[in-house]
Amino acid sequence: MAINVQQRPAARWLVALGIFASCAVAWAEGQARPGKVEFSDGSALVGNISLTPGSELKIHLDNQVRTLAFDRVRELRMESEKESLEQAYRFPEAGKAFRVAEGKPFPVRSLKTAISLAGGENLSGHLYTTVLYVETGENAKKVILLAKQRGKEGAALKELVYAARISFDEPGAAEGAVARLTLKLPEIRPSSQVVALSVGALDRVEAKPAGGAGEYTLASAPGSELFVAIKNGGRITVGWPRGSDEKMSALVKSSMPNSEDFFDERRVLGVYHDEAKGFVYSLILGLRKGKTTLEEARSQPWRLELYRWKLDDDGARVMLAGKGYFFRGIDAKNETVPVVEVSEKLWHLERQDGGWVAGEERR
């Protein structure tokens, strides 16, 4: 049975669980799954569970980080790996090792996560901080999954309540499940190459022709919202909104020197401010004009990329938070670089029957 969060002491729930009062959430269509979140104190939440739109589920396994498709997860179990009461100290005299305790001890807990996936695969490691939303009737509760908890001074370890088990009513999608992408656009040719990047994580998936004209499948759906690009020879069309945000464009261009990479010329082709999620995206054509280590006739790499920027609290600057790319290649010196154009029609992807459609007349 779902718990009414307001019936419990507010401070305890806010600090220990990261479950906050009802909030307006733009639910990711097709991502929410009915299930149950059980906490270490015996309480529970039942409802439709989803990730923050545009985010991803990541787990650290030994020497690698693995990104998991949310719809493949059958169950997550979190258990205490290490617990302790820590003490803060201060050094009264600069340059001397003598220290004195400051404040009361505070509890610290490290958590390990076991994940069961559809198809029988089981993983165990440390989950990256993940935000879930649980839709319970008309309300939405926020649940933060942490790899490490820290309580207030003087608090006891038992007050650090955590999500111990998350289970879903349905078994989850098998690996290799596909999503459909239909593009009813004049840019589509039999030889067109189509690539999708997920909004947020910028995971890249190449679309595969599915028989009919403009019909494609995505081998693994990268998210509920997509950026899509079409390549026809030396011309690339990218779905992008109409108009430009002059303020954000100026911020991105001023921050480009702080994100230098292999390319010595980077053209900013478009800037989009996703105000709902607090990110800024820039479409960048990176070109290498200088000398490279390639000895062949084709020696000048290029790459059409998406940069994801995080806007700081006062909106005065942006910081690079992630990169993804649509297409890349290597040209000969003085060869014409790809022509990139943007399309509002390709920007307006509509969800239909679990897939995406672009190019239809909008109702």
What does this entry look like structurally?
This protein has 363 residues and is mainly beta. Mean pLDDT is 82; it is low at 1-30. The strands form three sheets. Strands 1, 2, 3, 4, 5, 6, 7, 8, 9, 10 and 11 form an eleven-stranded antiparallel sheet that branches. The protein is globular. The chain has two domains: 5-168, no CATH class; 179-358, no CATH class. The chain has helices at residues 10-16, 246-255, 344-347, and strands spanning 33-39, 44-51, 57-61, 64-68, 73-90, 100-117, 122-127, 130-136, 139-145, 148-150, 163-168, 179-183, 193-198, 204-209, 215-218, 226-232, 235-239, 265-274, 279-287, 298-311, 318-332, 339-343, 350-352, 355-358. Helices cover 6% and strands 50% of the residues.
Short description:
With 363 residues, the protein is mainly beta.
Spell out the helices and strands N to C: HEEEEEEEEEEEEEEEEEHEEEEEHEE
Note the main sheet: 11 strands, antiparallel
Report the strand count. Answer: 24
Q: How many discrete domains?
A: 2
What distance lies between the first and last C-alpha atoms, to the nearest angstrom? 40 Å
Ranges where pLDDT stays below 50 over 5 or more residues in a row are: 1-30
Strand content: over 45%
Shape estimate: globular
Query: What structural class do helix, strand and pairing data support?
Result: mainly beta
Radius of gyration: 24 Å
Average pLDDT, all residues: 82
Summed up, the helix count is 3
Helical coverage, percent range? under 10%
